[in-house]
């Protein structure tokens, strides 16, 4: 018996972005008032000046809905145009219920596919790769991908090693069919043997071996970016914008330096959203992009290298064209 299969689509692209930063700004001085740290140490070691914390009663789906609606508006689409919702998150309080089904319903995307994707801070790039393949395979026409995290619920507020780094936020992208390819092949992977470097303790607070993670990120991630560039059939000199996961400004700078040593341009724009947003895990890459678009630092048509990495350990990267 011969079964029908969905007709394939040749090319996909990102059609729009949207983001949400919680209102509450928390400065380094605010944190020094409640723990043994200081502005100078945080700026020098991590590069963060301030970050946003969600309200106590704001949930991951609350954050996701706002960003999702904004991305839809930016793409010029209606909720009824979306047929799959992926929420990239690692901070839902428990595995059931997932975020995506409620987010989908609250946005008005009714009776459509909806699932969470947890690849920690690599979640957004994993989700863009998955969404692009769903559209190319004909399974979905338009996919809404939302990175949404409330890390303040997962970090001991008095643990100076982590409380200064992690923050809250959400940002989204709409993926759909295109005339020309606008999303390169995803290069993804995992290093599960390093699982003990970042995990949730039994008290559900985050633990990480900061120095080991730092060494891994500054050595393993630039080569993933180079593989994504090669997979897209371009060269490092073609990259206009580098958007690494915003984990630590020193990690961002190290990745940029390694890519420039391999031919990336000196005038390549490098996302530094960590300075005012902190580490928002799977929301950090689209938050950075949306801010740079709003500030006029990047333009429609720019070639961007995205690369996410984090707990798992997991990593993923791809080249995309800015909508
Ligand atoms: N304020 C002041 N001092 C602090 C501090 C803080 N918030 N946190 C640690 N310190 C102190 C330590 O106690 C230590 O003091 P000592 O030398 O007297 O023992 C000193 O600063 C150095 O600590 P260390 O842990 O070696 O700092 P570091 O330079 O490695 O920076 C991180 C710590 C976490 C910022 C850094 O390792 C990092 O960013 N790692 C990557 C983490 C990451 O990106 N994770 C997410 C991946 S998604």
Radius of gyration: 19 Å
Can you count the helices?
10
> What share of residues are in beta strands?
15-25%
Overall number of domains = 2
- Based on helices, strands and strand pairing, what is the structural class? alpha/beta
- Report the mean per-residue pLDDT as an integer: 97
Each distinct ligand: coenzyme A
Span between termini:
43 Å
Q: What would you say the CATH architecture of the largest domain is?
A: 3-Layer(aba) Sandwich
- Using DSSP, what is the number of strands? 14
Assign the CATH superfamily of the largest domain. Thiolase/Chalcone synthase
Which geometry do the CA atoms define?
globular
Task: Provide a descriptive summary of the structure in words.
With 323 residues, the chain is α/β, with parallel strands linked by helices. It has two domains: 12-177, Peroxisomal Thiolase, Chain A, domain 1 (3-Layer(aba) Sandwich); 187-321, Peroxisomal Thiolase, Chain A, domain 1 (3-Layer(aba) Sandwich). The chain is built from ten helices and 14 strands. The chain has helices at 28-32, 39-45, 60-75, 100-107, 123-136, 160-163, 210-231, 249-261, 274-277, 284-294, and strands at residues 12-20, 24-27, 50-53, 84-88, 113-117, 143-150, 168-177, 187-190, 198-200, 206-208, 241-244, 269-270, 303-310, 314-321. The strands form four sheets. The protein has a five-stranded mixed sheet with strand order 1-7-6-4-5, sandwiched between helices. β4 (84-88), α4 and β5 form a beta-alpha-beta unit. α3 (60-75) crosses α4 and α7 runs parallel beside α8. The chain is globular. The N and C termini lie far apart (43 Å). 54% of the residues are buried. The model has no long low-confidence stretch (mean pLDDT 97). Bound molecules: coenzyme A. The site of coenzyme A (COA) has 19 residues, from α2, α6 and α7.
